[in-house]
Amino acid sequence: MFDRRFKSLVILVFLVLMVPVLGHSATLSEIETEFMCDCGCGDMLVNCTCERSDEMRGLISQMNNQGQSKTQIVANFVSQFGEVILSSPPRKGFNLVAYGVPMTGFFFGAIVAVTLARRWRFSRRDEEDEESESGDDLSEEMEERIREELENLED
């Protein structure tokens, strides 16, 4: 019986904690970061100070006061102005290229850099080995001369 009450209490606490999360609505500045100002300045709506940005903010505020969610407001703006109004491309279709190409390029570049570094390191090691081998091998004439010189020094 105690176990059942404890489970009920845990579920009740969990539901009470979830209520603020479910009721969270996006702030105007959070919504404004989704859009570019269409006055031609090239700034995000949240940073622009022109008259057109004030009109767009008023429209966003009006939609938010009507109870529309962030997703609904974004969809409304996209249907009204097109995808060019978005501050970042939507993650679907061909726009995925904008997200995937930089990472792919980075990984291929890293692979090429590591491969070239390894080849360069091993080629230098081979050159050093060749130099050390050629330095150790003395011709028979040279060895004979060295012996003669050493004998002359001892005398």
Describe the SSE topology.
Elements: H1 2-22, H2 28-32, H3 51-65, H4 70-81, H5 96-136, H6 140-154
CATH class membership of the largest domain = Mainly Alpha
* Helix share bin: over 70%
Q: Report the radius of gyration as a whole number of Å.
A: 37 Å
Strand content: under 5%
Overall mean pLDDT stands at 80
Cα shape: elongated
Would you identify the regions where 5 or more consecutive residues have pLDDT less than 50?
A: none
Quick take:
This protein is 70% helix and 0% strand.
What labels would you give this structure?
2 domains, about 0% strand, mainly alpha, Helicase, Ruva Protein, domain 3, about 160 residues
Notes on the structure:
With 155 residues, the protein is mainly α. It folds into 2 domains: 24-88, Helicase, Ruva Protein, domain 3; 92-155. It contains 6 helices and no strands. The chain has helices at residues 2-22, 28-32, 51-65, 70-81, 96-136, 140-154. The longest helix is centred in the C-terminal third of the chain and has 41 residues, at 96-136. The model has no long low-confidence stretch (mean pLDDT 80).
